[in-house]
Every structure is written in structure tokens, then in C-alpha cells.
Protein: SusD-like starch-binding protein associating with outer membrane
Organism: Arenibacter algicola
Amino acid sequence: MQTIHHKIRKTVVVAALGMLLLSCEGHLEDLYENPNAVTTIDDSALFTKAVRSLFQGTTDNGSAHFAGMHAHYYVAGSTWRAPDQYGDGHDQDYNSIMNDGYSGTIRHIEEVLEHTSSPGTQNDVRNAIAHVISVLGYAKITDGFGDIPYSEGGKGKSQDILLPKYDTQESIYKDMIIRLTSSINVLKSADPAMAYPNSDPIYDNDLGKWVRFANSVRLRLAMRLRYADAGLSQSTVTQCLSEPLMETPEHDAYMIETEGTGNAWFTRRTGFPSIKMSTLLINQLEGTNDPRLSVFVSQDANGQYSGIVNGLTDQAFGNSNFANLSDMGLALSSPESKLYVMTAAETWLLRAEAALAYDNDPVQANILFRKGIEVSLNQWEVGEAEITGFMTSSAATLSGVNNEEQIGVQMWLAVIPNFFEGWSHIRRTGYPVIPVRTSEDLSAGATNGIMPNRFNYSSFELGSNSSNVQEAISRQGANKIDTPVWWDKN
């Protein structure tokens, strides 16, 4: 009896397996025959990862550990304070900054670019959007180091290029502008259904906003070339002004981090090492009665805004009462605070600078300047009465005497909390003026007291890709933090 039952069960199992195999075979045939069936891995997840890495990069080692202090927004405590002293013993950091730049945004977006340009999976709309993200990823790396792997960068997996050549920053910038121009032309008339309907964490598949975003990034790059290639800068600005640009906070490119503890600035405000805001930043905001003071800076235990001077020696720092000074503002450093890579406020101020530099039109520059400030105040949800009051102050109107500096200082404020962009902005324009350190309480570091201009190529890179790195150094200048990158002519 047991044997008969066993045979019956065996027969049923074999029959079921046969039916399953036939079903699978039929399903596979359907896939082969159905032109609308998904036969390849969708690139949406890779695109989302690349975008997320891009925004996380605004809080990474290069931004938090270095650029934020080089640009005098804040001072970090403990061992994180070392870059604030303009030191040069950060070889492992330089290595991680470059590696993280490529292993995050670039690695993922290169896969998207390959996928969306390959036969069978080609999608010009997604490809155009991916180029915008790629440009932003590469722009940050080249702004930090100068010459970098670009034409062969990020190709280790797809093309087995393990020792990529270093391209000149000049050629990189020119190509990035070309790529953005091409993307804008594609996206202006693109079908949103061909983009990322369910996988766009920035604009929820609004291609009109993507056009504004790409064009505003192009304007940023164009103005960064102002002192290195004025002709290309001006012609590109003219192109930018003929296309839609970011104008209101709803056009801002931001993301809210939802994983883990949320925004990384939250863990730095509440954890270790702590961050205290810079005297330079607080003095600027307090001195002009800027309502963004309470946005960017928290009150100390006494209800005051107390900052710390950047670059203190160890002895002076020990006497600074660091623990009791003002923390980063809650709007910047709460778990749900927004991370930004580009804003409408920055775009208006870039236009103001361009009007002054290329049109010699201080009247138009003032209109654009005021618009940039107003949009920034709205971005941070400053009250209407406070906005009205500040816009009537002298700080919100170009004086006619120091217009370039006024625009530069407001740009420095407008890019917060993208502190890396603030550092790049100061390097390009010289504003706000970062005093050379001459006081005995301040550390001159490896730069004789001058704000660092770049990151060094690490010893690992020098050892593993020696000939290509040495060629870059021979073009660019000594591998030191006071060697300016190509566009830094100020």
C-alpha cells in the first residue's frame, strides 16, 4: 500500500514538473516574440543610485572635512579640525575623496550612459538626463583636483581601463559644456514617458525642470571659466540666457535623505566631532541684519550667536570655549533637511555677475542681484515681513562701489549648505575675502596662511598610475594644495 502511494506521489510530482517546464518554456517564447516585453535589466535603479550619491557627495569627506572649513563656514572639532589649519598631512583623505567620487556617482552613471546608448536599450532621453548627472559628478572631482581621468574615467568595468589617462581641466570643462548643450536640446522636446516616470528623485520626471537645471549648471560652468577663457565663458553665457533657467525655489535641485539617521549634517551637529559656526559667517549675517542668521546658525546657551575663528593654533583653540559656541542651524542639520546641488538663488546671482562682467550693465545687475537674494530668502522660508525689511536694506542693493564683492558675498551665502561650491566660488572670485593668516594665534600651515586651492593626488594614485599622474603634474604644477587649478586665476 505504501509502495502504491509512493508511486502515485512520484507520478504527480513528475507531471507537475513537466507542466512547470512547459509553462516556463512558453513564457520564454512569449518574451522572445513580444517586442514590448522586458528582456534586459532596467537602468532606473542605477540612475537613482547615481543621483543619491551625487547629493550625498555634498556632505562627504571633501565637503565636510575640507571645503566647509576652507571656505570659512564652520570649524569641526577633534581630529577633523586639521584641514582648518591649512595642513598637508591628509594623504589618505585625498585618496578617499577621489575614490569616492568615482565609486559613487561616476560608476553608476557610466553604467546608465552605456546602457542607454547601446543597441537594443538605447534611450536618448534617459541618456541626456544621465549626462547632466555625470557632468555634476565630474565637475566636483575636477574642481577639487584639477586634471583628472575623464575621457577614460569610470571605464574600468566596462572597458577594462585600469590606468586611465588624466585629461586637462580645460578640455574637461569644454566637453562638459558640450554635453550639457546636447542634453538641453534633447530634453526640450522629449517625451516624458521615455524618461524616468517612477525613478526621478529630483524632479519627478518634469522635463521642463530638467532643462532649467541643465542650463543653470551650464551657466555655473560658464562663469567658472570667466578668468580662464573669457571668450568661451561669454559665448556660453549668451547661450544660457536664451534658454529657460532656474527661477524659483520649486526649480531647486534638492533631495531629502530618508535612510539611516537622515541628513549627514544632523549626525555632525549632534555627534562627534561636533561642528561650530565660523565667526566670518556670523559677522556677515549679523552685520547686515540678515534674517538667514537664525536659519544657518543656532543660538548658543546664552541665546547669542557665537562663532569661532577659522585656523586657530592648538593653544588658541584650547582657549576658545569651543563646546559652548553656536551649532549649525536646525534648518540645515535636521534629519529631514534638504541637500542641494543647485538652486535658483545661485542662478540669479550668476546672472547678476554676468550682467556686470559682460554687459557692463550695473542697473540690470542690481535687478538680478536683488532677485537672487529674495529667492534665497524664500528658499529658506523666511517670513514675509523679514524679507521686506531686508530687501530695503543697503545689503540688498548694489552700491556701485564694490559690486563684484557684494555679489560674491551673497553667492557665498546662497550656496549654503553646498559648502564645496562655496569653496570653489571663493577660489574663482576671491569673495568673500579670506584674510591671509598673520596673527600668532592662527596657523599658516603649508600655504603660508593662504586658503588652499586644491586637493593633492594621493601617494596611492602616484604609485599605481604613476606615468599618467606625473604627466598631469608636469602640466598643472607641483602636487601641492596651494597650486591653483586651471580656472583659478584670481
User: Anything to note?
Assistant: Residues 103 and 154 are 8 Å apart (CA to CA). The chain has two domains: 44-262+335-476, 264-333.
